[in-house]
Design brief:
It is a single chain. The protein is of the alpha+beta class. The protein has two domains: about 80 residues, GMP Synthetase, Chain A, domain 3, CATH 3.30.300.70; about 70 residues, SH3 type barrels. Helix content is about 30%, strand content about 30%. It has a five-stranded antiparallel beta sheet with strand order 7-6-5-4-8. The chain has a three-stranded mixed beta sheet with strand order 1-2-3, covered by helices on one side. Strand 6 and strand 7 form a beta hairpin. Helix 1 crosses helix 2. The two termini are about 35 Å apart. The C terminus is likely disordered.
């Protein structure tokens, strides 16, 4: 029942979140005693602050109140942003992780850590072991952001920025960038 309920609520909640200028990352509905717990996770390319979470919460609450017949019971609304441990499962997650260290577990091969550069629709460019490589999302079993306690090396960031703009890479190669959004 909760999954069916989430499916019916998703278009309504997604519209409210989009209207507020954010992306609906996930929506869950769980039974919590006599009440429903509606958990909404929102994000944006620029991140989301506490004031924005409150704004989204008001908009989603208004939509749920207007459509109370869908919930058919009392509910508790929880609006939050994704945590650092959220897996990178969509191109926008990779785009938002630009210049961050990511632990990548490929579907085949050994796990490794890389710094994310340009993220397209099908793959992300990463810097791993001093070299740039493309990682197709379909080839990744799991990827999560690694927490860093110091600034990333300036040369790594410069290399990734130059690569994204189509300038020369560390090996002196120039590759055309395919821009897809």
């Amino acid at each position: 029942m909760p999954n069916e309920l989430a499916s019916r609520l998703e278009p309504l909640v997604a519209e409210a979140v989009t209207t507020a200028g954010f992306d609906l990352d996930s929506l869950e509905v769980q039974q919590a005693g006599r009440r429903q717990l509606v958990k909404v996770v929102v994000d944006s390319d620029d991140g989301i602050g506490l004031d924005e979470v409150a704004e989204v919460s008001r908009k989603v609450s208004a939509v749920l109140d207007e459509n109370e017949h869908v919930l058919a019971s009392a509910y508790t609304l929880e609006v939050t942003s994704p945590g650092l441990d959220r897996p990178l499962t969509q191109p926008r997650h990779w785009r938002r992780a630009k210049f961050r260290l990511v632990r990548i577990t490929p579907a085949e091969g050994a796990e490794y850590v890389a710094r994310v550069g340009h993220a397209g629709q099908e793959a992300a460019r990463v810097l791993a072991g001093g070299s740039l490589q493309d990682v197709a999302y379909a080839s990744v079993a799991k990827a999560v952001v690694e927490i860093e306690f110091k600034q990333p090396p300036a040369e790594d960031l410069k290399l990734l920025e130059e690569d994204a703009s189509g300038q020369s890479t560390a090996a002196g190669q120039t590759e055309p960038k395919e821009e897809s959004k």
